[in-house]
């Protein structure tokens, strides 16, 4: 029986895991040399060098986006169970494949990518967005006894930076000053791998340049004093008192990396003001759109893993607990043009061949089912059976049994559709289910990272996927 974790328990456990990670000492390679020998073989050289994760935070309904079902327009007094899609479906460039209205631009570039229609999210009992996001980004169900690395941190650690000046792992668009900020911090970390492999945060891409230069009025000498103070703070902090030498040195190396970027010509990539106006205007649909632009520029400069999020804030964005139809219409305007333009720009410059772009969300949504049909969980939405108000017209409940995902470039098939969901409620996965360990190992395989990569933590091996059992999905590769 699944534990019904609440947010307080979640934070208590993850905080304890962080302290445990600090005390765990340096990761000890265990069989790692063997993994690396395998990774240099012809089968593990990889088809990609860079990953861009476009994160639709909050639960993007598959039937309203990339897997539309029968459209039913709103009528006062209609039965909610009749509603499968609240948007008409529109054709894409692929014969017989339709997207939901509002995603025409992405539909026109699907000849360059793969559509997965069968992602199945984990059954973890009472649904919390932050717990499912933790699971998606780390491949581990929270809580854990150690601080688990984000997938971007694993990639930064195993492959290192493509350009030693550009941070290997960049996170764009998520703030931690609102909503479930502390819960989100729990997986935005390199965990036991060390701070140097953690994310370089850019909450607002329009102010990205401010992230790589000293504040106004701070000269080089004052910045040097700040750096010295930073080292002193490390020594007197909990890390200094309880952390291992490995963790302390990793913190210092992260500051050194930031200092190199500060003084490099590559820092101009963060300045979106230098982008030609015609290009800038296509991306300028808001913070997410500009995040896609910044991701493209950083890819061109050699970033290894970039995450761009629509940002998770409870009851906003894709978290459609009410006004689902009108909210999704707005979200589509924010993502459609920028995502499509990112793919076209990367293809035009040749970067898409070695860049894997992933569009994903923690789970889907359904009007009637909370969880999955055979594992329903506590209802969180007051959704009437009969719709008397347009605010109830949309996919409000959390649905984990059928989700859509897009993959572009990086060795993935072009114009390919994988998996299927039922056309009638419950619109669950009925062919080729894909779970999170398969997603992670598919990404690692594309990058040439061996499936048995592991470190010894707390005297036991810790793998990129639980127990090292995750397997890639060969059918997705060209």
Describe the structure.
The structure is a single chain. The protein is of the alpha/beta class and 478 residues long. It has 13 helices and 21 strands. The protein has helices at residues 7-23, 32-39, 104-107, 129-138, 151-159, 181-185, 220-236, 238-242, 245-262, 277-283, 287-301, 324-349, 436-447, and strands at 28-29, 50-55, 78-79, 89-91, 98-100, 113-119, 169-172, 200-202, 305-309, 355-360, 364-366, 371-372, 375-376, 386-387, 397-399, 403-408, 416-418, 420-421, 429-431, 454-457, 460-463. It has an eight-stranded mixed beta sheet with strand order 8-7-9-2-10-16-6-17, with helices on both faces. A three-stranded antiparallel beta sheet has the order 1-20-21, with no helix packed on it. Helix 7 (220-236) runs antiparallel to helix 9 and helix 11 (287-301) runs parallel beside helix 12. The two termini are 41 Å apart. The model is unreliable at 19-26 and 28-43 (pLDDT under 50). Pfam families: DUF1501. InterPro entries: Alkaline_phosphatase_core_sf, DUF1501, TAT_signal. It comes from Spirosoma agri.
Please give a quick description of this structure:
With 478 residues, this protein is of the alpha/beta class. The chain has helices at 7-23, 32-39, 104-107, 129-138, 151-159, 181-185, 220-236, 238-242, 245-262, 277-283, 287-301, 324-349, 436-447, and strands spanning 28-29, 50-55, 78-79, 89-91, 98-100, 113-119, 169-172, 200-202, 305-309, 355-360, 364-366, 371-372, 375-376, 386-387, 397-399, 403-408, 416-418, 420-421, 429-431, 454-457, 460-463. It is 32% helix and 16% strand.
């Amino acid at each position: 029986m699944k534990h019904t974790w609440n947010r307080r328990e979640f934070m208590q456990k993850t905080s304890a895991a962080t302290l445990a990670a600090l005390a765990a000492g340096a990761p000890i390679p265990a069989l790692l040399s063997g993994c690396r020998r395998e990774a240099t073989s012809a089968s593990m050289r990889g088809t990609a060098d860079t990953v861009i994760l476009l994160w639709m935070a909050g639960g993007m309904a598959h039937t309203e986006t990339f897997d539309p079902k029968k459209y039913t327009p709103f009528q006062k007094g209609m039965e909610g169970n009749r509603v499968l899609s609240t948007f008409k479906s529109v054709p894409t460039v692929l014969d017989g494949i339709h997207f939901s209205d509002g995603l025409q631009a992405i539909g026109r570039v699907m000849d360059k990518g793969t559509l997965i229609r069968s992602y199945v999210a984990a059954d973890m009992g009472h649904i919390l967005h932050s717990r499912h996001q933790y699971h998606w980004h780390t491949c581990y169900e929270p809580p854990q006894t150690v601080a688990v690395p984000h997938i971007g941190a694993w990639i930064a650690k195993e492959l290192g930076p493509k350009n030693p000046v550009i941070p290997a792992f960049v996170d764009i668009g998520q703030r931690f000053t609102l909503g479930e900020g502390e819960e989100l911090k729990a997986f935005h970390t390199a965990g036991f791998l060390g701070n140097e492999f953690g994310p370089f945060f850019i909450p607002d891409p329009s102010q990205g340049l401010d992230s790589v230069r000293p504040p106004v009025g701070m000269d080089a000498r004052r910045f040097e004093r700040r750096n010295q103070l930073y080292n002193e703070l490390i020594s007197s902090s909990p890390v200094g008192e309880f952390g291992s030498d490995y963790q302390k040195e990793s913190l210092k190396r992260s500051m050194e990396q930031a200092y190199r970027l500060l003084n490099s010509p590559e820092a101009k990539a963060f300045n979106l003001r230098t982008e030609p106006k015609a290009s800038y205007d296509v991306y300028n649909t808001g913070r997410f759109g500009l995040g896609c632009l910044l991701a493209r520029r950083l890819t061109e400069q050699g970033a290894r893993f970039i995450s761009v999020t629509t940002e998770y804030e409870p009851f906003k964005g894709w978290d459609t607990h009410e006004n689902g139809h009108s909210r999704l219409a707005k979200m589509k305007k924010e993502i459609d043009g920028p995502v499509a333009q990112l793919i076209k720009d990367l293809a035009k410059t040749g970067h898409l061949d070695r860049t894997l772009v992933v569009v994903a969300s923690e789970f889907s949504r359904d009007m009637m089912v909370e969880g999955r049909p055979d594992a329903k969980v506590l209802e969180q939405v007051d959704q009437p059976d009969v719709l008397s108000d347009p605010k109830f017209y949309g996919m409000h409940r959390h649905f984990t049994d059928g989700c859509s995902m897009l993959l572009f470039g990086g060795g993935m098939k072009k114009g390919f559709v994988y998996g299927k969901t039922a056309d009638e409620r419950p619109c669950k996965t009925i062919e080729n289910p894909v779970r999170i360990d398969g997603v992670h190992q598919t990404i690692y395989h594309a990058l040439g990272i061996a499936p048995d990569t592991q470190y010894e933590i707390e005297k036991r091996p810790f793998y990129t996927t639980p127990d090292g059992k995750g397997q890639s999905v060969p059918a997705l590769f060209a």
